[in-house]
Amino acid sequence: MENESKNLVRKIIHIDMDAFYASVEQRDFPEYRGKPLVVGGSPEGRGGVVATASYEARKFGIHSAMTSKKAQQLCPYAIFVRPRFAAYKEVSQKIREIFSRYTDLIEPLSLDEAYLDVTLDKLNIGSAIAIAEQIKQAIKDELNLTASAGVSINKFAAKIASDMNKPDGLTFIGPSRLEKFMEQLPVEKFFGVGKVTAEKMKRQGLHTGADLKELSQQRLVQLFGKTGKFFYNIVRGIDNRAVQPHQETKSISAEDTFSYDLDKGEELNDWLIQIAKSAFKRVQHYEIYGRTLTLKVKFEDFKIITRSTSFTSPVTELNQVLETAQKLLDHLDLGGKKIRLLGVSFSNFSETKPRTRYDYHQPTLFPPTKI
Prior knowledge:
Number of helices: 14
Oligomer: single chain
CATH topology of the largest domain: Alpha-Beta Plaits
Main location: cytoplasm
Catalytic activity: DNA(n) + a 2'-deoxyribonucleoside 5'-triphosphate = DNA(n+1) + diphosphate
Keywords: Cytoplasm, DNA damage, DNA repair, DNA replication, DNA-binding, DNA-directed DNA polymerase, Magnesium, Metal-binding, Mutator protein, Nucleotidyltransferase, Transferase
Site (Substrate discrimination): 21
Number of strands: 15
Protein name: DNA polymerase IV
Radius of gyration: 22 Å
């Protein structure tokens, strides 16, 4: 069967739950239904950031990673609730059980989205579109939630497709129209293209996939580094990345974006302690200890830098974590800039087990509590 699968065109499904955290809250608490609901943060005090907003809240322009203060300005009567990660993980496991009825090739990207390779599905259905329809219906019938699905011959196209008709959508991008679709795609939609890269592309006169296609691979690499090779292939509909059921853990981290930019001082130190504790708690939970600790800093101008310290043996004590993180921050030259985000991560693990990626990074969401 392995040799047979190599000769087949891949059938990839990307499933993305619709406003997942908010939808679970509205399902479990009828009083939230039909109302603008914000999960994460609080309009009081420092507030934190939005984890997910219901579709009713999104109509006001509220979105993930927005400060709760800004969210309340956009919709003064929005309802703010704390996230219940235990509940979301439980639902996520049930979604995963539905996926596993059709294939074992499942690559979770987070609690609410995953790739599925159904080239050779367990039930011999054969049609990826039919499988996606059945999965969506099972999620609706069994969990009272909706999901959107994208179906194509590679991961990139399937992920793009799943976002095209939200909520409760299903979009198929077949091989015959894949390359044309990529030519028409705005550069902002391409993997690896953030705000800064998109602006750089537009300064070069690159607005769509068709514009990227005009450049040679060598020129794209000159302009965008290693990602240039990916751009060269993907605009031609080529993405050979396989669905990976297990991923080796490379880092465990926690980070948070502040509701306003901070200078060095007691308040920033409080945040650092909270974030470092959150990261170390995850390390302890998974019982894999790293020898390298990294501090991530995003400045008010959105520039990101990292500073790391490595040890000869794994870091297993919280005091060592806090002392190291504090030293990295103390030795940081701000150059007159303020800080809008801090993150702490562990890597260079001495003993690593296969884990799915969503286990390892979640925003801390809430400001530190002083004891």
